[in-house]
Amino acid sequence: MQVAFGVLGSVLAWDGAGNAIALKGPRHRAVVARLIVARGRVVPVTRLVEDLWADPPADAVSALRTFVAALRRALEPERPPRAAPRLLVTEGPGYALRTHADAVDAWRFERVATATATLPPAEVPARLNEALGWWRGPAYADFADEPWTRAERSRLAELRLQAVERRAEARLALGLAAETVPDLDAHVAEHPWRENAWALLALALYRTGRQGDALAVLRRARTLLVEQLGVDPGPELRRLEVDVLQQAEHLDPEPGGAAGRVWAQATAAYDRTVAAGSRARLELTVGLLRNLAVTGGSGLQVAREHRPAAIAAAEELGDVELVTRVIGSYDVSAIWTRCDDPDQAARVVAAADRALAALPPTGHDAARARLLTTVALESRGTRSARPARAAQEAEHIARELGDPALLAFALNGVFMQSFPHAGLAPRRDRTGAELIALAARHDLVTYEVLGHLIRLQARSALADFDGADHHAAAADRLAERNELPLVAVFTQWYRVLRLAAIGRAPVAEAEAAYREAAAGLDGAGMPGLQDGLLPLALLCLRLTNALPAQTDDGTGWGPYGPWARPLVLLARGRSDEAAAALCTVLDPPRDLLFEALWCLTARAAVAVGDREAMERAHAALTPAAGELAGAGSGLLTLGPVSRYLDDLATALSARDAGGGW
Question: Are residues 440 and 307 in the same domain?
Fold first, then answer.
């Protein structure tokens, strides 16, 4: 069971399902809080006694041990009698809380707040909004007067204030001055001695055209500092006041200097000259959403949220050609084979099908190809044969028309539907190679990146890590030159896969690298990739190093739970339940993790002696005998597929020879 702890407010704990764990009395919670403050270090019993009691009673040590025993029962209720605790452990002269970095809200907050210092402004507000939302009150609120929380409470409070101000800085950099003002106004009212906050508020007001209010804020700050603290404002506030009075050019309200001014002037002219309800505005909106989608984080999320509304608006106008352009012009390259939002994808496919049915039977070939490609891309991982046929038809049309951009889009659909069975890495490698050559000739940057990522995956599946390294480096160079931050998510995960696959690093080092890569997914806007991926990667790492599966309750596995659960139950010694769970497991989705999930099934089937499951796994995996299981994802691996085929063949032969188990 994965236990989470909250100290950003009162001290709480939750089980893996999000249910509150009863921590009993205040001294039980104090033990938890004191050990969290220690950040995994051992706290001697004598120190705990001193911290829990101002005047320790004679039986304080005995009482402390009673608290610890009760906490262990609450935190690990399924731990067998006499089994060593894994969470609240005894070590040397005292106790320690052994939990991972994401288990404590304060630790997560610190990691996210620190990471945002180096992120581009577009990614900062969404990540800090989420992190600041974890605060339920002052840190360690139950123990505000305890000396042992004082330094940590002060440190976390300062981190929180810095995060509020960093979020405001990012919003200002993004041209969101108006929506920044209310938050900053409340912030300076609550923390009037923070000069940086006053400066940000004044700048936000100035950038919304409120020069007088900006000056009033700066003068109010000066008055507070002089009259109540007896100090003059610092050089930043003094310089800002002069700049506001002189309307200094560097205070220009539009971010990005000259580029920002050009954008502002162009969009203002567009607003003046193009009617609010025009078709042109709708088509421009789709173009903006397409560009937003490749920025990652909040941009990708906004694009995903608004795309269905744009399609619905086009359908309301009753113009099938407009609908076709609105759907088909969203040609955002896609590398991951699991949808971020399956319900939305189904709605887009339905709209594309309606448009296909309404198009005249002749002509409009390019529009038809874009709609068919949309069907292929939005139907990823399904068992239907129709999306693959749509991809093939779109590719044929694009080749006939000789349209490079249309062909690149269609090849993306072909890639997304290239998983009818295992062992097709060479086919996908050829698709990636064609995309790279085509995109490089015609300056289609996002598709050139896509081609390199496809080949990175394919070469990984074929254990050609030198080739995969080349494509990872090429993708990174293109991404840096063209401001495509999402690319780094995939290349970082690939490098951890390489580390795990080569097997030269200790398991603990590879596990830490996976956790770091998973942290890069926070705020990336790709739930279809993120959900359950870290537990699955750690499971694969453990199995390839001959270690049992994680023995938690399966929480956090996301869509991979059915394939992980039998192995988790086996690791806990519950083989009958594992066999029953295996009987309910369906064939994996036909996507980038197809071979990996079949290998998990094979491992469990051999362990419990399920002949039918072994035969199914052997048949499914045989075409991939020369590949690394799961490495085609570019994210994780279970080692050579041939190893699983050998184990299956041996187990089946043994069963045949022995007449059963």
Answer: yes
Confidence of residue 90 (pLDDT cuts 50, 70, 90): very high
Report the pLDDT value the prediction gives residue 275, as an integer from 0 to 100.
Answer: 74
Q: Residue 122 gets which letter from DSSP?
A: G
Question: Which residue is it, tokens 């929506």?
Answer: 179
Q: What is the CATH number of the domain that holds 162?
A: 1.10.10.10
Q: Is 252 left (phi over 0), alpha (psi -120 to 50) or beta?
A: beta
Give me the pLDDT at residue 593, please.
96
CA distance 490 to 633: 10
Residues 154 and 212 in one domain: no
410 & 292 share domain: yes
601 with 570, same domain: the answer is yes
Look up the domain containing 596 and give its range.
527-658
639 bridge partner residues: 629
Same domain, 227 and 291: no
Task: Compute the residue count for the chain.
Answer: 661
Q: How far is CA 340 from the centre of its chain?
A: 11
pLDDT of 258 strictly over 80: no
Residues of the chain with pLDDT > 70, as a percent, come to: 95
- Per-residue pLDDT tens over the stretch 374-419: 999 999 878 889 999 999 999 999 999 999 999 999 999 999 999 9
- pLDDT-derived band at 229 (thresholds 50, 70, 90) equals confident
> How many structural domains is the chain composed of?
4
The confidence score (pLDDT) of residue 272 equals 67
Residue-by-residue DSSP string for 220-259: HHHHHIIIII--PPPHHHHHHHHHHHHT-GGG-SSTTHHH
Do 359 and 420 share a structural domain?
A: yes
345 plus 487 within the same structural domain: yes
| Token duo for residue 601 | 């099934």
Question: What whole-number distance in Å separates Cα of residue 68 and Cα of residue 95?
Answer: 9
Pair 327, 212 in one domain: no
552 in a structural domain: yes
pLDDT score of 44 more than 90: yes
Concatenated DSSP letters of 177-216 = HHHHHHHHHHHHHH-TT-HHHHHHHHHHHHHTT-HHHHHH
- Average pLDDT for 14-39: 90
Mark which of 273, 295, 316 sits at the end of a domain. Answer: 273
Q: Are 300 and 283 in contact (CB under 8 A)?
A: no
3 state DSSP class of 629: strand
Beta bridge partners of 74: none
- pLDDT tens for 454-498 read 999 999 999 999 999 999 999 999 999 998 889 999 999 999 999
**Between β-strands 4-6 and 43-44, what pairing exists: parallel, antiparallel or unpaired?**
unpaired
CA distance 445 to 449: 6
Query: Does residue 508 fall inside a structural domain?
Result: no
State both tokens at 462: 């074929």
Q: Do the domain assignments include residue 190? A: yes
Q: What is the pLDDT of residues 164-199, one digit of tens each?
A: 999 999 999 888 888 899 999 999 999 998 999 999
Reply yes or no on whether the pLDDT at 660 is more than 60: no
Q: State the Cα–Cα distance between residues 135 and 218, nearest whole angstrom.
A: 29
- Stated as kind and residue range, the H or E segment containing 619 is helix 611-621
* Helix orientation angle between 533-544 and 561-571, rounded to the nearest 10 degrees: 50
Residue range 552-577: average pLDDT?
88
As given in the structure block, the two tokens for residue 617 are 């796994």
State the virtual CA torsion across 304, 307, 309, 311 in degrees, nearest 10.
Answer: -150
The CATH number assigned to the domain holding 381 equals: 1.25.40.10
Give alpha helix (H) positions in 402-442.
404-416, 425-442
End residue of a domain, out of 111, 134, 167: 167
Q: Is residue 520 part of a domain?
A: no
